[in-house]
Amino acid sequence: MNARKWIQAGFIVAVCIAPLLLPLYQVTVLNYIGLAALVALGLVLLTGIGGLTSFGQAAFVGMGAYTTAYLTTHYGLSPWITLVAGLVFTGGAALLIGLLTLSRLSGHYLPVSTIAWSISLVSMVGEIKSLGGHDGISNVPAIPLFQFQFDTPSRIYGLIWLSVGLGMLSVHNLLNSRNGRAIRALRAREGMAEAFGIHTGALKIKIFVHAALLACVSGWLFAHLLRFVSPTPFDFPQSIDYLFMTVTGGASSIWGALIGSATLALIKDQLQNLLPGLTGSGGAAEEVAFGLFMIAILHYARGGLASTFAGWLPARTPMTIAKDTLPLPTTARVDHTGPILQVEGAVKRFGGLVAVNEVSFELVRGEILGLIGPNGAGKSTMFNLLSGAAPLDSGKIYLGGSRIDGMASRQIARRGLARSFQHVQLISSMSLLENVALGAHLRSHAGSLASILRLERASESSLLAQAAHQIERVGLGAYMHAPAGTLALGQQRIAEIARALAADPQLLLLDEPAAGLRLQEKRQLADLLKQLRAEGLSVLIVEHDMEFVMGLVDRLVVMVFGQKLTQGLPADIRANPQVQEAYLGSVA
Ligand code: ADP
Ligand code: MG
To answer: How much is the pTM?
Structure first.
């Protein structure tokens, strides 16, 4: 066993025996750390990884706490039943809030609205008589388990830390799955995720609900630990503390939730002990000292304390790639025998600029069509129109005979279109294998719950095997488990092709795939594309390197200033004086 393993084993043993050895007060502190860690864990998923900020987590804790307090004291229900009721209620509330805020609006709307609804909810509870008003609800019973009662801090300790362990496992399992890869794309690569069929809006709502449910469990335990609830602990300032914990610990690390909540609890505890002796007053001095602490931590441990202690925490082990997996289903094929792609009079304006102006062309099944033109001609914009990343102003686009203009890019992905991006869109912290597996997202239907319970291992193995196959195929096998951000730019472009191939497309759109490649790599890429053509794949490629393009494509479409200048065979295009002029003109 190496030092890292010893530290981890020691930690787990310490957590298990702590209530036997420590005085009651310290067991209580550990209980509060566990309760806070559960909430912070949700925020790691939501904020640290998903990139969505919520200032309302304490209100979800309150929903869990009040549901159980009210139902156990008024109706004598078992806390186990009220746990389920709390999860349903809190999950439902989060779903509703998510539907109202997340799917329509992004940016600052979510953080601001979470502040608003959480403050109003807590004030409202303070006014409701049957919920005890500001005095709250007392005489909440202990949680029973057969004859046993979790009626002291030492007894409920096990339940709290079991919940923390299960919560961490649930987030860990979720992140290492099909939906987890999609969640990790939410923060910075939303457009890419949509291009591979991921419904990012729905996914945001899912992680919002997941975080709320973790908060609800914390609230349930809190109510039965304290045996009393009142509005104050669920108010806005507590939500800020949860965010502090998450950031302090390391917003994108599961262990960060634990480290952050422990650090904050210990700092607060020490300040309460020390400060009154030093200054003669509590309150304000404590807040100021706490603020200074926070600033220092944020300054010196930017990635949070989890990155400072990364050497002690469990390392990410490379994922295993199984050999004998079931093949993934191929995506739906249409029987349409006409052109795979037809563009009729496509127009796209940006304000006064007409980036694509009445462009029409076709792509015959099984051909490689080159789209060339000087910088700013509108090629990338055309790609965005084809893949649904941007809407057309007018015109029609048909894929396999059916109209796709007006569809969202995730719907177009379902119809067999996959693309690469001119500006590489990999998730740099995620391994190459996982990045490419994201391309095959639509070829499995494993849900989040199945992932959390590890019931989708066969389908997950197939996804990873498919990704590994495509990585080998494009010649990046040596980098399988390397974080994508560590690859050279040329390799990242090739990785984008592997990701697109993992989707099993009928039509592949490549935006400047050869940029930044060395001569040898360009030759390999050309060979690969020719092989794909031989297998029946249709390819539309934008490329600046004329040598590369001329030796590869069947036909070319030339765009200049948003318009189609001409189209034809490579030799004809090369000899066309208008084309030569357009290129020379753009250089001059
Ligand atoms: P190409 O890929 O052929 O170099 P682009 O399609 O990227 O050209 O750009 C075509 C024109 O549209 C350029 O003048 C560019 O500045 C403009 N353009 C592209 N995207 C946008 C956008 N999102 N907003 C405003 N103008 C844009
Ligand atoms: Mg471009």
So the answer is: 0.92
* Dist. CA 377 → ligand 1 center (Å): 8
- End-to-end, the C-alpha distance of the chain in Å comes to 66
The DSSP call for residue 425 is -
CA 398 to centroid of ligand 1, rounded, Å? 23
Q: Whose CA is nearest to atom 25 of ligand 1?
A: 350
Cα-to-centroid distance, 468 and ligand 2 (Å): 29
Q: Tell me the three state secondary structure of residue 184.
A: helix
Amino acid at 18: A
Task: Please give the Cα distance from 434 to 450 (Å, whole number).
Answer: 18
Domain architecture of the chain: domains with CATH: 3-310 (1.10.3470)
d(CA 42, CA 251): 10
Residue with CA closest to ligand 1 atom 13:
376
d(CA 394, CA 345): 7
CA distance 290 to 268: 7
State yes or no: pLDDT of 253 exceeds 90: no
Q: Is the CB of 373 under 6 A from ligand 1?
A: yes
Confidence at residue 544, expressed as pLDDT on a 0 to 100 scale: 84
Query: Residue 584's pLDDT is what?
Result: 66
Determine the pLDDT at residue 164.
Answer: 96
Q: Look at ligand 1, atom 22, and give the residue with the nearest C-alpha.
A: 350
The structure tokens 């991006």 sit at 421
